Amino acid sequence: LENLQPEIKKLAERLRYEVSVRAKQVGWSEKVARFHFKKNLRRIITELYVRDNCHPFKATLLVWVQIPMWVCVSLALRNCSVGATDSQVQEQLSAGGALWFTDLTAPDSTWILPVALGLVNLLIVEIFASQKVKVSRFQKLATNFFRVVSVVMIPVAATVPSSMALYWLSSSFVGLSHNLLLRSPTFRRLCCIPRTKSDSDTPY
User: Fold this and answer.
1) How far apart are CA 85 and CA 128, in angstroms?
2) Can you list the residues of the chain whose pLDDT is less than 70?
3) Which residues, 6+ apart, have CB-to-CB distance to 57 below 8 Å?
4) Within 10 Å of residue 149's Cβ, how many Cβ atoms?
5) Both 69 and 40 in a single domain?
6) What sections of the protein cross the membrane (predicted)?
7) What single string gives the DSSP state of each residue in 180-194?
8) Structural domains in the chain (count)
9) What is the pLDDT of residues 31-90, one digit of tens each?
10) What is the CA radius of gyration of the chain?
């Protein structure tokens, strides 16, 4: 998508010229000319998306799967931790922890899991923010919103069973690992991911 922007800009300039010439020939008003420009530009952009197989909606597909799954697994872990499904499962969780969180049915009293979760989520937000060259007002608001959510998740994770906090931390850590790996120039070359303007030779 990023690599398409110069081509889209060039095609938009040419289209604007062609529409203005056509408008003079046929006698279109400025409003009609603008309508034809936008309509044709949308068509051209859609054709480019199809050609390069990079429709923006594809970037959101993972979210539509990930969020419901995250909610369902969180609720399942909560139910298992409070004994709502099976008391045997609750007993296994109460003795199935490790290190300082030996009881997965109780909240983490040390706050290590919640604070680690908040820090990992903040890191993910900052990595996304640092990738943007030109940031719109909406993107700034979205970034600040996710920063607030990352901080708010700390006290929330401190009140839920450790099994949920551990799952949230694991999920966020995998997300952070993906983000760091996808910023590696060596990994990107191995996967034949095209270079963009925002790419850095020293991303870390």
Assistant:
1) 39
2) 132-135, 198
3) none
4) 14
5) no
6) 111-129
7) HHHT-HHHHHHTTPP
8) 2
9) 888 999 999 999 999 999 988 888 888 878 888 888 899 899 989 888 888 877 777 777
10) 24
